[in-house]
Design brief:
The chain is mainly α and 60 residues long. The protein has 2 helices and no strands. The chain is rod-shaped and about 80 Å long.
């Protein structure tokens, strides 16, 4: 039983050390792809300008 606790403890320490120092290149990838239309400020600005030119009232 003591060996089992020692193995679990050693694995825990190893995982913590790996997370702290080991995997430096395993970062979260950034989003560089296309942006959805409802997240694109330029698209939303263009819609707003088009609606103002057309004389439409914004939805309430």
């Amino acid at each position: 039983m003591l060996y089992l606790l020692a193995v679990v403890g050693a694995l825990t320490v190893a995982v913590l050390l790996w997370r702290a120092f080991g995997s430096q290149n395993a970062t979260v990838p950034t989003r560089r792809g296309s942006v959805a239309p409802d997240d694109d400020p330029e698209f939303l600005r263009g819609l707003d300008e088009r609606n103002k030119k057309a004389g439409d009232d914004p939805p309430a």
